Structure prediction request, 43 residues.
Amino acid sequence: MNTDYEDIKYKELTEKIINIFFRVYNKLGFFREDLRKCNNAGT
Prediction:
């Protein structure tokens, strides 16, 4: 029982941390810039 609770707790914490990183990353505009580079490299 205790293990299930800890797994859920760490899963939720991990998801929150990843979401924060994605928000910052997208806010800085790196994601869109990287996509453009990838699309241009294929042509």
Remarks:
- The first helix runs from residue 2 to 28.
- The two ends are 54 Å apart (CA to CA).
